[in-house]
Amino acid sequence: MTQLSEQEIIRREKLEELHKLGIDPYPAAEYPVNDTSVNIKTNYSEETREQFQEVCLAGRIMSVRDMGKAAFAVIQDSAGRIQLYIRRDDICPGEDKTLYDTVFKKLLDISDFIGVKGYAFITKTGETSVHAKEITILSKSLRPLPVVKAKEGEVFDEVTDPEFKYRQRYADLVINPEVKDVFIKRTKILQTIRDFYNNLGYLEVETPILQPIPGGATARPFVTHHNALDMPLYLRIANELYLKRLIVGGFEGVYEFAKDFRNEGMDRTHNPEFTVMEMYAAYKDYEWMMRTTESLLEKIALTLHGTTVVEVGDQSIDFKAPFRRVTMYEAIIEHTGFDISAMEEPQLREVCQKLGIHVDPKLGKAKLIDEIFGEKCEGHYIQPTFITDYPVEMSPLTKKHRSKAGLVERFELMVNGKEIANAYSELNDPIDQRERFEEQVQLMERGDDEAMYIDYDFLRALEYGMPPTSGIGIGIDRLTMLMTNQPSIQDVLFFPQMKPEQQR
């Protein structure tokens, strides 16, 4: 049985007292809010005072300063905080002073929700406040919030414990209101992307999350079982193959904000559930996609910050288009000194050994190149850089390069040492695609648990004919981390995945 703290016991006793007074601490009726704290503080003046004679606010009590027959309180609504002036004779005009003397002074606590009707004014100290004429209890809080004290804009005991912040985001948002700004900016990022692609005439769509074959990426999936169909289903690792089916079906451009799931490790840039925006456009190639993507990111930076320069940790990252372009082999030469362009698997293993990179014997050529780039190159690309022209073995769904044998038309966008986007000139040759899938099966047989399954229905769709197409996936969580200067993916997810907590 859960042990209650002394504070929790006292609050439950107060709850009973409210009931005894005939006051419902959780009323059902609509409360007619007509203003916000920020609007009043921003727009109230002597010239506009007539507009603020009948304001109605609601929010949490965050502090109370008792002055006997009057009190100052601060409430926090969805927009911010504002001071209230509550006088006994104003909220209790008759003989009965119970509402002030008992309810307000003794039975209300910090974090209770109240409604306030009154008028705005400026105190002698120059603070825009609301003079309460009526208060209503809207919800009694039974668990005290951690107390955060601030003075003159300086926070003294801010709650920064990640365990608390990630596990109890609902409380974190109340006591650290600046956290809310991160998520408001995240929504602005999504809206900017939507507007950008909608203006190109592309359609936002939805595709299955439960899939019979986890295709479109190389990753370990989550698996479940559908009882009625008696078959395994997988949480999608990517939505690529379904979006391409829609291009086959005749859409010129489609995009989706997809929840994807990968059963792999967790760290500051990985969560098992994450958001990717994937977009596919007919009659385009990866060169067009690079130009479009740098324009999109420039627009996002300008929308959020009013400038293309974004401060990320101790770096100033400039999203002004155009971005630098470097081929995969050039990047590896630049940062390791090895030209691997003509190497096969045994030579690549030797290079890994010389560079001190431990690799699993099961890994094929593609994974070895990926390991070299990831360990020795990726972290150097702080400013936005397109890494282009990948070896064919690394990209089973990508069109072969139009002029460079053994390569494919692919790019990854690196920013601040991490991949933010991945894009191709999409493979639309069904025979070539079948061969690439079969090579993936061989890797699977060697023990690579991230190798791709063969999706025969997707092959059938390609056989009907898919026009030349370019596609991209942008990691929304990592992009939000960049644009809001957050060090961890957990800071840009409302509810990141956590281990079960120990019950007290």
Walk me through the structure.
- With 504 residues, the chain is α+β, with helices and mostly antiparallel strands.
- It folds into two domains: 6-144, Nucleic acid-binding proteins (OB fold (Dihydrolipoamide Acetyltransferase, E2P), Beta Barrel); 180-323 and 383-492, 2-Layer Sandwich (BirA Bifunctional Protein, domain 2).
- It contains 15 helices and 20 strands.
- An eight-stranded mixed sheet has the order 8-12-13-20-19-18-17-16, sandwiched between helices. Strands 1-2-3-5-4 form a five-stranded mixed beta barrel.
- Strand 4 and strand 5 form a beta hairpin.
- Helix 7 packs across helix 9, helix 7 (178-199) packs across helix 15 and helix 13 (430-445) packs antiparallel against helix 14 (456-464).
- The longest helix is centred in the middle third of the chain and has 22 residues, at 178-199.
- The model has no long low-confidence stretch (mean pLDDT 93).
Largest sheet: 8 strands, mixed
Per CATH, the superfamily of the largest domain is Bira Bifunctional Protein, Domain 2
CATH class of the largest domain: Alpha Beta
Strand order of the largest sheet: 8-12-13-20-19-18-17-16
State the shape: elongated
Global Rg: 29 Å
The first-to-last residue Cα distance is 9 Å
How many domains? The number is 2
Q: Provide the residue-averaged pLDDT.
A: 93
What is the CATH architecture annotation of the largest domain?
Answer: 2-Layer Sandwich
Number of strands: 20
Classification by helices and strands: alpha+beta
The proportion of strand residues reads 25-35%
Number of helices: 15
Helix content estimate: 25-40%
**Low-confidence spans: pLDDT under 50, at least 5 residues?**
none
CATH fold name of the largest domain, please?
A: BirA Bifunctional Protein, domain 2
